[in-house]
């Protein structure tokens, strides 16, 4: 909000990681990564090509859970696409696909330099789940649709019977 900007000095402000948050999920899965933010970390910024325009990773976020799926050319496995669709239909959720190859389909974010893949220790098939407050909630070196749905359902206190993946 504009009215508060005069009270903030970026040299005296730092985001606070929330490593012990009960909202974090899958610490055993997070340990498989060689780099990148851990569950509880603030999402680290990186420049990207978003629909032909220069942008940044945080431009992909919103007031909802955001899954960031890493792909070579924009492809998403059917089971994961089904989980994305199921979540988007019943909770505040969006999925964003980041690809390395320029020939990615429309709606896919481009990381042509591979910088984001490297910064995040990701490979094709990796998945980061980001909370609405911009903290990493979970990460999987190999995306697991069931684990994604379970992490969000548990964070929201939803009954497990609601999980249809």
List keywords for this structure.
165 residues, alpha/beta, five-stranded mixed β-sheet, two-stranded antiparallel ribbon, 4 helices, 7 strands, globular
Describe the structure in your own words.
By secondary structure, the chain is an alpha/beta fold. The protein is 21% helix and 20% strand. It has helices at 27-30, 78-90, 115-119, 145-156; strands spanning 47-50, 53-56, 65-71, 93-99, 109-110, 127-130, 136-140. The strands form 2 sheets. The protein has a 5-stranded mixed beta sheet. A two-stranded antiparallel sheet has the order 1-2. Strand 6 and strand 7 form a beta hairpin. Helix 2 (78-90) runs parallel beside helix 4. The protein is globular. The termini are far apart. The mean pLDDT is 88.
């Amino acid at each position: 909000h504009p009215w508060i900007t005069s009270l903030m000095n970026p040299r005296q402000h730092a985001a606070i990681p929330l490593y012990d948050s009960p909202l974090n999920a899958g610490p055993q899965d997070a340990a498989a990564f060689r780099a990148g933010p851990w569950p509880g970390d603030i999402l680290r910024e990186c420049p990207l090509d978003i629909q032909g325009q220069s942008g940044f990773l945080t431009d992909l976020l919103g007031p909802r859970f955001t899954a960031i799926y890493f792909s070579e050319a924009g492809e998403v496995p059917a089971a994961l696409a089904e989980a994305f669709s199921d979540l988007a239909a019943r909770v505040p959720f969006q999925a964003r696909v980041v690809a390395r190859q320029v020939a990615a389909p429309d709606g896919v974010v481009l990381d042509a330099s591979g910088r984001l893949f490297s910064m995040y220790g990701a490979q094709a098939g990796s998945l980061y789940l980001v909370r609405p407050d911009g903290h990493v909630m979970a990460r999987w070196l190999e995306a697991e649709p069931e684990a994604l749905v379970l992490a969000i359902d548990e964070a929201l206190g939803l009954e497990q019977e609601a999980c249809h993946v």
